[in-house]
Amino acid sequence: MTRRRVEIAAPVLSKLADVVVDRYRLTLSILVGLTVVAAIGQSRPEWIWDLGRDLRDLSGRVTSALQPPADPESESASESSPNRGAAYSDRGGPSGATEPPRPGRPVQTPAPEPSPEPPSEPPDVTPLRMAGGDVIVVARSSDFFTPSGAAMMRDVVGSLEALSHVDRVFWLDRIPVLNLFGLPQPLLPRDDASRARFEAARDRASRHPLAAGQVMSPDGETFLLMVDIDWLFVEQDGDCTDRLRDVATQVAEGYPDVEATFAVTGNVPIRLSRAASNRSNEIKYQLIGNVTAIVIALFLFRGLAAVIVVALAPAAGVFWTMGAIRLLGIADNGFTAVILPVLICMIGFTDGVHMMVHIRRRRAAGDSPGMAAKGAIRAVGMACWLTSLTTAIGFGSLMLASEDVVREFGMCCVVGVMLTFVSVATIIPWASATRLGNRIHAGHEGNVIDRGLSRVAGLVHWVVLRSRLVAGVGIAVTAALAFSASRLTPDQRLTSSLDRGSEAAAALQHVDEALGGLETANVVVRWSPEIDSDSGRIAAVVAEVDGALRGEPLIGHPLSLASLLDALPGDGPPETRMSLLDLLPPPLKRAHYEPERRRAEVRFRIRDLGIATYGPVFERLEKRFAAIERDHPGFGVTMEGDAVRRWERLYRVVVDLATSLGTASVIIFVALTVIFRSLRLGLISIVPNLFPLAATGSLILVGGGHLEIVSVCAFTVCLGIAVDDTIHFMTRFVDERRRGKPCREAIQDAFVSVGTALIMTTIVLVIGFGTALLSDARDHRIFATMGILTILTALFADLVFLPALLDRFAPSFADADDSRSSDS
Q1: Which end of the chain is more exposed for a tag (fewer CB within 10 A), N or C?
Q2: β-sheet bridge partners, residue 559
Q3: What φ, ψ does residue 640 adopt, rounded to 5°?
Q4: 676 pLDDT exceeds 90?
């Protein structure tokens, strides 16, 4: 530690130690106050919001009362002004008006602008919506095309539409007749029709462009009921999920000869399932994280008093953090509800372990509880503050991301890290100075980690003797792994954050298999004004787009103007059948063809296989569409839809990752360089901090994984955690060097001093992250896996690469002899 940093930090830490230990009642009052505010934030945050609003209103009234009364004459003059109440522009006139005339200047009337040619009015027709719906009721049965099955389905739809919160249900029976002038022939016959007619209807529906792959599976055993919700009458979340399924199931039970099952999925059920999973997992994983920390501490410390004191800090940090983010009005998501509590608990526990190890050593050496607590703040407080600062920097870099979920998670992590540092720096020393501190060193001699530390010290000694080789290998391996990890490709799924066994996820998977996908996207064909909207060239271009989509196996059941024309009577190429458009029902025609806007749409379905799977498909389609544009001048072909936007947006995830990691790495490097007042030490810190991230990314690549939003969070979070051990090791190394010890002796003593805490915190973090592996959500398991891999590889880098780099490249301390006497 440099002399200047000691001069600045020592008084601050000494003052903090005196306040926390000596003025214990003040410290207790502050801790109780923070806890009460956090409790209100978790249970009744509106109380704080209302209080703040009332204070602002009171401040406004006080400010108004203190203002001098207005001059009545000025008020009357203002009232007589012809422009009273008008907003004036900077040039002296009313906002939006022309400048008033000046003396000697003629009034100029602006010339009227030529009015554009009015566009053709679109017809008053509502386009038919074949896909979508707030809720999708997935019905499965092999008896739909039977008299009882048809009667059952019509009864189910009628019962659903009888619910007050259901606006309409679109299904197979509501498909319009293609030929406007033909006789209506429903795809699902009347209930009293013969079985032969039902079999013929099944065959006809399986070939119908509006039925197969749109509202039913080609085999006729899965029906989709597109339910539109009237949100005015929704009273609870279950109205959009359980109630719809239960009503359909109850109706089906009245038809014992029909075996049918019902499930709900779609946008609304998926969002509700995700929210319910977050709420249920929040409490569960907070308990799991806290209990795990206590059990681990009991095993490692071999003393109940030390366990209680260490467990208090992370528990308070989690409680304060969850209350704070609710007071800030940040909405719950899978990361803040599940990952954040475990993460904050582990961070608080690791810093608490470093402080507790020092307190126990001082108590075992004969210091009083108060002196041991003060000594811990002075000796470990700066390292804990540096680790919290760098961890907050790593988390804060997530706020540069373009995804709202990632930005909110980064903000919550920064708040949590700062509050957790406050809990560690106050609760552990304060509690250690009370009666709990009398027996806090019990079991110190039986510490499991200390007994095996000599073996690890032998590894460090071996590394130092071969520092040139190990340092070179470390730099080369880190560079190679970083290059490998940079080849990760982005990915995202709709069901990533859902429980594996949730109804919405299972139903969506079945629809993907039976109908080629639940989510829809579209290709928009536009043409220039020079092209007649009735031209056959439009049908020819749409037909080529339709063919390009059908050539991709992962694209499900395209529906376009060309497929509708093919379903009409007659033969011939698409460009010769454009006049048949008048035979289509107007709502169906408007859904795929808007001549006044000069556009046509081709809709298709995609499965929830991940954007990484569809990335090459979309790239091939874009090239094919570009070729179509070249072959047909005056036409433009573009892909649109949520899936396409996610594909385009996910490439920004790579940029976000590079930006956040790059920003965090640069800031951490600069911070360490400034703190240690050494460019060499700042450069040395790069390898042990970059190696864990590069190794984890390479392992994900080898395992066939991809870069997802959860990966962006995990990489940045792990950078913040991985740098903690490096800071503790380097801080102790610099302290030893400042005392005048040779470099290799300083490395050995630094490891002996912090090695116990390094290994102990690694065990805590690995087991703590392992609790998230129990989650049903895929995102949580990915986050936990990456955390475990990063923490383990970070310990390896700190025990192998960091000692070698310090021995090989650490700067010399010319004033070591001078500092030795001052330290003594």
Answers
A1: C
A2: 603
A3: -140, 170
A4: no
